[in-house]
Amino acid sequence: MYAFDYRRPHSLNEADLALKAHPGAKLLAGGQTLIPAMKLRLAEPGHVVDLGAIGDLKGIAQQAGAVRIGAMTTHAAVAESAVVAAALPGLASLASGIGDPHVRNRGTIGGSVANNDPGADYPAAVLALGATVHTTKRAIGADQFFAGLFSTVIEENEIITHIDFPVAERFTYAKFANPASRYALVGVAVAKTKSGVRVAVTGAGASGVYRLAEAEKALATDFSAKAANGVKVDASNLMSDMHAAADYRAHLIGVMLRRAIG
Ligand SMILES: Cc1cc2nc3c(=O)[nH]c(=O)nc-3n(C[C@H](O)[C@H](O)[C@H](O)COP(=O)(O)OP(=O)(O)OC[C@H]3O[C@@H](n4cnc5c(N)ncnc54)[C@H](O)[C@@H]3O)c2cc1C
User: Cα–Cα distances in Å, from 100 out to 34, 71, 95, 117, 247?
Assistant: First the structure.
């Protein structure tokens, strides 16, 4: 590891000031992505601002019609939360399937959505549920938040503080995991709310997480495995890599969609 300046502020205000004082500084959450990236010199920030001592960024609370999860809440805490289990059991189940126990005990929801890895699980839940990502500057709707592979609309000097997940009539997530990393080779999240059905796919899109319009249309009038079965998945905008070809991923999306409908 190379030498860098490390700060551990105790409030969001102090974190904000540290970011402003050091352009190019990186925020550190659980370090599950940032530390390996620094070790490999894929990221070489001169200043690191650790969010770990800011109590306001941790925790889970039931709000009117939504579950609020602090950015520094670990995947393990979401998986074990009684609030999440009661309001959005599918989200607790998603969190329990991330990585391994080490990753779930260190990795955070804020780090996951900020990083927007194309195989990450939470982005699918954020998009399918139409969640709102709150930062130190603004509230960002799910449809505006993700901006391509490893990219979001978050700017430098902007800290994700919490995410509000609307409570759905039904929310389920089915993933075909890479057996080595547990990242999604394909993951499909389905949310049924009073205003309709939203379906999001992770792990497969050439531009990252996306909504599957064909499935939303089919399920809006008939929320059934039979309707899901008829959905045609276009492979032309899907990734091909050493793990799976685009047409294989297209097939898996159909399978995961049917599993999510149950
Ligand atoms: C072996 C392994 C297996 C994994 N398997 C899975 C899996 O199955 N599914 C899955 O979804 N994920 C998986 N992950 C990813 C993991 O769950 C973490 O969510 C992810 O690595 C981010 O880690 P972190 O929260 O520690 O953030 P960090 O690594 O600390 O930060 C990641 C990025 O987000 C930025 N950031 C962090 N917090 C904030 C914030 N509050 N506001 C703004 N920017 C912020 C940082 O500056 C950095 O750029 C895996 C990771 C590993 C190492």
Answer: 17, 20, 11, 17, 28
